[in-house]
Amino acid sequence: MTNGNGAPNENAPPPQLNVLAQYVKDLSFENPNAPVSLAPQQQQPSINIQINVGARNVAEHDYEVTLSIEGKAESAGTLLFGFELAYAGVFRIQNVPQENLHPLIMIECPRLLFPFAREIVATSVRNGGFPPLMLDPVDFVGLYRQNMERQAEQIRPS
Predict the structure, then answer these.
(1) Residue 103 and residue 141: Cα distance in Å, rounded?
(2) Cβ neighbours of residue 17 under 8 Å, at least 6 residues apart?
(3) Would you say 61 and 93 are in contact if contact means Cβ atoms under 8 Å apart?
(4) Among 101, 103, 109, 89, which residue's Cα sits nearest to residue 148?
(5) How many CB atoms lie within 10 A of CB 134?
(6) In this predicted model, what pLDDT tens digit does every residue of 11-44 receive, in sequence order?
(7) To 10 degrees, what angle do helices 140-155 and 109-127 make?
(8) How far is it, in rounded angstroms, from Cα 113 to Cα 115?
(9) Overall average pLDDT of the 31-59 stretch
(10) Whole-prediction pTM
């Protein structure tokens, strides 16, 4: 909020971001080839991870942000395990300029959710009989930029 000449308005309330709730919306772990898949492997498995972020407005200042993580491990063409997690949070966002709202929702909110989702994935994989899968940190700024570029390309006429 500015006072018209670009300087911050001293009377404007400060921006607020509050986490109202966090929860698992969907969790699936598959170990289709157990117990054979649990035997020591000759080589490191190939692990493929995909991460997406979605958001929707649920009240005037409240947004549900869903962090979706899908992954699978394969070795010699055999699926060792696969998982899908949709981990969500409801965030109350107030006093944030409209032009900053979308990046805040799509970058900062998933950044707050990620450590919890990472722990759920690690525990699920460990409970499936494998060493815990520790997901690398995610560059949510880069992910946001990729998604914005992809959307811009879809809008451009050919």
Answers:
(1) 8
(2) 91, 92, 93, 96, 104, 108, 109
(3) yes
(4) 103
(5) 10
(6) 788 999 999 999 999 999 999 988 988 888 888 8
(7) 110
(8) 6
(9) 91
(10) 0.86
